[in-house]
Specification:
The chain has a two-stranded antiparallel ribbon with strand order 1-2. Helix 5 packs across helix 6 and helix 5 (77-95) packs antiparallel against helix 7 (143-158). The chain folds into two domains: 7-15 and 79-171, no CATH class; 19-76, Orthogonal Bundle (Arc Repressor Mutant, subunit A). The chain has helices spanning 7-17, 20-32, 40-43, 49-61, 77-95, 105-120, 143-158, 161-171, and strands at 65-68, 72-75. By secondary structure, it is mostly helical.
Length: 172
């Protein structure tokens, strides 16, 4: 099923998915498994209680995480697939030293997601793929970049509630 996104919806959705606390939460669980519910503040100690609560509420609303008694906070299928998007964008960014050679994991994902969304915008309603606009070099349009575009497009098509939540979040 393909869901049509306007350029503004795509921009807002990618901005929401690029939230550093959300990236941290999803990748931490993806890398290390479920986090005990009471262990979130210890695991993500650099996030304030407010940001952590806001992020977990947002992730739960998006269907990215679930809390299972005795197991903790784990990823849903949507969360696991978003972690794959994050991994693909970070892999491309690392290979191309994007946005710079000394960028951290989160900023690599943020910047690359914006770049992927920019490349994806012209085709998001028509099907998977990236549009190689005039400003994209062949290095940027390598297989990893196209793969990241395809993963993001698939995720957006499979989980259209992200655009609805982004619209609510950015309207508030």
């Amino acid at each position: 099923m393909t869901t049509s996104y306007t350029t503004a919806e795509l921009r807002d959705t990618v901005a929401m998915l690029s939230s550093p606390p959300l990236i941290r939460l999803i990748t931490e669980i993806d890398d290390n498994g479920p986090i005990p519910a009471r262990g979130l503040t210890r695991t993500l100690a650099d996030l304030s209680t407010h940001h952590l609560r806001q992020t977990t509420d947002q992730a739960r609303t998006l269907g990215l995480i679930r809390v299972r008694p005795g197991v903790g906070v784990g990823l849903t299928e949507a969360g696991t697939e978003l972690a794959d998007v994050y991994d693909a964008t970070a892999r491309w960014a690392r290979r191309h030293a994007y946005p710079s050679g000394i960028s951290d994991f989160t900023s690599r994902i943020q910047h690359t997601l914006r770049l992927v969304a920019e490349a994806l915008a012209p085709v998001v309603a028509d099907g998977p793929g990236c549009s190689a606009g005039d400003h994209f070099t062949s290095a940027k349009m390598d297989a990893d970049f196209v793969g990241a575009c395809d993963l993001l497009h698939q995720w957006l098509s499979a989980y259209p509630q992200a655009a609805r939540l982004a619209e609510y979040e950015f309207a508030a």
